[in-house]
Every structure is written in structure tokens, then in C-alpha cells.
Automatic annotation (TrEMBL):
<feature type="binding site">
    <location>
        <position position="110"/>
    </location>
    <ligand>
        <name>4-amino-2-methyl-5-(diphosphooxymethyl)pyrimidine</name>
    </ligand>
</feature>
<dbReference type="InterPro" id="IPR022998">
    <property type="entry name" value="ThiamineP_synth_TenI"/>
</dbReference>
<dbReference type="Pfam" id="PF02581">
    <property type="entry name" value="TMP-TENI"/>
</dbReference>
<protein>
    <recommendedName>
        <fullName>Thiamine-phosphate synthase</fullName>
        <ecNumber>2.5.1.3</ecNumber>
    </recommendedName>
</protein>
<comment type="function">
    <text>Condenses 4-methyl-5-(beta-hydroxyethyl)thiazole monophosphate (THZ-P) and 2-methyl-4-amino-5-hydroxymethyl pyrimidine pyrophosphate (HMP-PP) to form thiamine monophosphate (TMP).</text>
</comment>
<keyword id="KW-0479">Metal-binding</keyword>
<dbReference type="GO" id="GO:0009229">
    <property type="term" value="P:thiamine diphosphate biosynthetic process"/>
</dbReference>
<feature type="binding site">
    <location>
        <begin position="188"/>
        <end position="189"/>
    </location>
    <ligand>
        <name>2-[(2R,5Z)-2-carboxy-4-methylthiazol-5(2H)-ylidene]ethyl phosphate</name>
    </ligand>
</feature>
<feature type="binding site">
    <location>
        <begin position="136"/>
        <end position="138"/>
    </location>
    <ligand>
        <name>2-[(2R,5Z)-2-carboxy-4-methylthiazol-5(2H)-ylidene]ethyl phosphate</name>
    </ligand>
</feature>
<dbReference type="InterPro" id="IPR036206">
    <property type="entry name" value="ThiamineP_synth_sf"/>
</dbReference>
<feature type="domain" description="Thiamine phosphate synthase/TenI">
    <location>
        <begin position="8"/>
        <end position="191"/>
    </location>
</feature>
<feature type="binding site">
    <location>
        <position position="168"/>
    </location>
    <ligand>
        <name>2-[(2R,5Z)-2-carboxy-4-methylthiazol-5(2H)-ylidene]ethyl phosphate</name>
    </ligand>
</feature>
<dbReference type="GO" id="GO:0000287">
    <property type="term" value="F:magnesium ion binding"/>
</dbReference>
<dbReference type="InterPro" id="IPR034291">
    <property type="entry name" value="TMP_synthase"/>
</dbReference>
<dbReference type="InterPro" id="IPR013785">
    <property type="entry name" value="Aldolase_TIM"/>
</dbReference>
<feature type="binding site">
    <location>
        <position position="92"/>
    </location>
    <ligand>
        <name>Mg(2+)</name>
    </ligand>
</feature>
<comment type="pathway">
    <text>Cofactor biosynthesis; thiamine diphosphate biosynthesis; thiamine phosphate from 4-amino-2-methyl-5-diphosphomethylpyrimidine and 4-methyl-5-(2-phosphoethyl)-thiazole: step 1/1.</text>
</comment>
């Protein structure tokens, strides 16, 4: 994984799209996203066979565009379908165990403070997600918007570590996140709901 892979990190699940999620993903891939995370959450989340089939279809679309395909939380599925990696939160399995299970794959970790950042870096994470930077519509149990202050601090403490900002990021505030030191921005709604994804994605870079 290169730091530039984090430039426009699209995250999506079936709950985030009104249109067909696969056509949204293909349009986003055509429009220049640099990384994709399948984050299947919510009351109507796909489960079992349907979830795996959907994941495999997303994976093959990403492969067509040579874009890293990341699974949120589900380490077992990521291993089973040989995804390019996983993104995990603080509540998931110990990072050391995930790192062991996914040697050579991308392991991303959500961090919210200096202690979590220190543990993620020491534990072998390939990148960290910091947020929510702004108010988010996409995560029901999100912590309050933190702004860019912790992101700036993390960049100061870890000048060369891959960091992506997440939470309420749009074409209107992405630049602030990058100026604060993020390698890129993770986006759900701004891309899912865009009427011109090519333009939106260019304005996030
Ligand atoms: C809760 C999350 C926090 N950060 C990220 C990412 F942007 F990928 F780092 N993904 C998530 N699912």
C-alpha cells in the first residue's frame, strides 16, 4: 500500500446508496477513487451468502481497475476471499492477532486519540483512519466531530505514517483535512449521493 492509495478512499455499503450499489461503485472506480472499502452495516445489511457474493462482485470490479479492495471488520471474510485487506475498529480483535492472520495484506485501524494511535503504529497497522472530522450522516454511533486538531497532532508525531481523515468530508472541506496532514480523505455520502462523481472525486483530491 502506498500513501497515495489513501487519496480518495471510497467507503460504501448497500444502505448508503439509493441507486444500485454496484453501478455506484463502478462509476466511482471509473471516476478515479484510489481505494475502496466495503462497509456493510445497518438493519438491512446483507448477510451470509448474499453478503459474500456481493463482496466478491465488488472485489472483481476493484480488480478490473487495480484498486485495493478492503473489507470493514469482517476479518474471516477478508481471508476467505483474499481481499487486499481489512479495516478494523478499536472494539475488534487485538491488532496483533489480525496482523498475524493477514500477513502481507493491508490492515487499517480507526484511532481517536494518541494512545490508540501509538498502539496502532506499534501493532503494525498499515494506515490509520482518524475521525469523525466533521458531523457524519453515515455512522449512527459516531463520536462527536473532532475537527482536524487530533489529525494534525498525529501527523506531527508520525510525519511519515499513512493517515486518512473520515467523517462528514465533502468537496467543500476536503482541502482543510489534507492541509492538516492527511494523506487522503475517506468518503461515503459525498460520493454515493453525487450527481457527477467525476467532478466530485476530482474536487476531493
Ligand atoms: C470507522 C472507520 C474509520 N476509518 C475508516 C478509514 F477511512 F478507512 F480509515 N474506515 C472506517 N470504517
Amino acid at each position: 500500500m502506498k500513501r497515495s492509495d489513501l487519496a480518495v478512499y471510497f467507503i460504501m455499503g448497500t444502505e448508503n446508496c439509493k441507486e444500485n450499489p454496484l453501478s455506484v461503485l463502478e462509476d466511482a472506480l471509473k471516476s478515479g477513487i484510489t481505494m475502496f472499502q466495503l462497509r456493510e452495516k445497518g438493519a438491512k445489511a446483507l448477510k451470509g451468502e448474499a453478503y459474500e457474493t456481493f463482496a466478491l462482485t465488488c472485489q472483481s470490479l476493484c480488480k478490473e481497475y487495480a484498486i485495493p479492495f478492503i473489507i470493514n471488520d469482517d476479518v474471516e471474510l477478508a481471508i476467505k476471499i483474499n481481499a487486499d485487506g481489512v479495516h478494523v475498529g478499536q472494539e475488534d480483535k487485538p491488532l496483533a492477532q489480525i496482523r498475524e492472520q493477514l500477513k502481507g495484506k493491508i490492515v487499517g485501524v480507526s484511532v481517536h486519540n494518541e494512545e490508540e494511535m501509538k498502539l496502532a503504529v506499534a501493532g503494525g497497522a498499515d494506515y490509520v483512519g482518524i475521525g469523525p472530522i466533521y458531523e457524519t450522516q453515515s455512522k449512527a454511533d459516531a463520536k462527536p466531530a473532532a475537527g482536524v486538531s487530533f489529525l494534525s497532532k498525529a501527523r506531527t508525531d508520525y510525519p511519515d505514517f499513512p493517515i486518512v481523515g473520515i467523517g462528514g468530508i465533502t468537496t467543500n472541506n476536503a482541502l482543510e483535512v489534507l492541509r492538516a496532514g492527511a494523506d487522503g480523505v475517506a468518503v461515503i455520502s459525498a460520493i454515493c449521493q453525487s450527481s457527477n462523481r467525476g467532478q466530485t472525486i476530482n474536487q476531493l483530491k
